[in-house]
Design a protein that fits this description.
This protein is α+β, with helices and mostly antiparallel strands. Helices cover 20% and strands 22% of the residues. It contains eight helices and 13 strands. The structure holds ligand MTE and molybdenum atom.
Length: 326
């Protein structure tokens, strides 16, 4: 996001993976069956998730989560390898490869998440309590980075609303702020790239929307640190940077919180940052995107969808000028 790039926002592609032929064939058969109407509902979901899981690490701790068909996009999931080696996590360095190299060294146990501010029941929860707070669901979401690329990731977690209910926000709680850890392994903190710690925020109704996911895992396993382990937020209708990684604090506040990217470049990154193909970034178009894994020389870009395709959130912004509140 700081790096100068061409107007389409394409950065240097990493070594792309070629889909093995067998996977490709089975996917084609799968899609033909969907088209013919011979697969539906649960079976469809099960196949989609099995495919997503085909290439996990195999070494990371498994995490049981029940697929929630209401929150599954049918786009082909990004390979586990791409999702865990092409990351934005500036605390570990500003290039795409550094998070995978350095983040695994961060200690994620013990880890606590403090929930405070305008709530009747402030609490500090460790990862085991977070894992038990509500049933873990598997959801396959699109993630659209403001830089112009996207992925499709099967996350495990539950609606942030489940946690919000437990702490009982007061009527003063109009916004929610998320604060990322400052860890000794985060060498990026030594450089003033952003005003550390990384902070993000949502309006309370956005935070309460069932799509907003408190995330503890992906691909059926514990969340890798480079993807925001042990706990992060995922807000799929907003640009990726709204989905703060490795959080240690959630604060309920009265006034719109400061956010790291808005502080760094207010003209480029607004508080809302809803995915919107009609509102260009000042330095590049947001009309289309490059899906990671489809980035061969001749791969076509995909059109970017309003709210990243999550049109159910539109009522949250009824009557708002989304060019002004970008
Ligand atoms: N703390 C923190 N959270 C962060 C970032 C970051 O640099 N620091 N990068 C964001 C950006 S720009 C994106 S696109 C997503 C990427 O998530 P992923 O690596 O799991 O795909 O994380 C977001 N969360
Ligand atoms: Mo991003």
């Amino acid at each position: 996001m700081l790096i100068k790039r061409n107007p389409n926002g394409i950065d240097i592609p990493f070594a792309s993976e070629i889909t093995p032929r067998a996977v490709f064939e089975s996917r084609r058969a799968f899609i033909q069956k969907i088209a013919a109407g011979s697969i539906a509902g649960g079976a469809l979901l099960e196949m989609a998730t099995r495919e997503a899981f085909a290439a996990t690490s195999g070494t990371v701790q498994k995490l049981a989560a029940k697929a929630n068909p209401a929150y599954v996009v049918l786009d082909k999931p990004t390979s586990y390898k791409d999702a865990t080696t092409y990351n934005n996590f500036y605390e570990f360095g500003t290039d795409k490869e550094s998070p995978a190299r350095y983040a695994p060294k961060m200690q994620t146990r013990p880890w606590t998440l403090a929930i405070e501010g305008e709530v009747r029941k402030p609490m500090t929860l460790d990862i085991d309590s977070l894992l038990k707070l509500a049933p873990l669901e598997e959801r396959i979401y699109r993630l659209r980075c403001v830089e112009g690329w996207s992925m499709v990731i099967p996350w495990s977690g539950y609606s942030l609303a489940e946690l919000i209910k437990k702490v009982e926000p007061t009527s003063n709680a109009k916004y929610v702020e998320f604060v990322t850890a400052e860890d000794k392994e985060m060498h990026g903190l030594r450089r003033p790239v952003l005003d550390w710690p990384y902070v993000e925020g949502l309006r309370i109704d956005e935070a309460l929307h069932p799509l907003t996911l408190l995330t503890l895992g992906m691909y059926g396993e514990v969340l890798p640190n480079q993807n925001g382990g042990p706990v992060r937020i995922v807000v799929p209708w907003k640009y990726g940077f709204k989905s703060a990684k490795s959080i240690v604090k959630i604060r309920f506040v009265k006034d719109q919180p400061r956010t790291a990217w808005n502080l760094a470049a207010p003209r480029e990154y607004g508080f809302y940052s809803n995915v919107n193909p009609q509102v260009d970034h000042p330095r590049w178009s947001q009309a289309s995107e490059r899906r990671i894994g489809e980035d061969g020389l001749f791969a076509k870009k995909r059109p970017t969808l309003m709210f990243n395709g999550y049109s159910q959130v539109a009522p949250l912004y009824a009557g708002m000028d989304l060019k002004k509140f970008f």
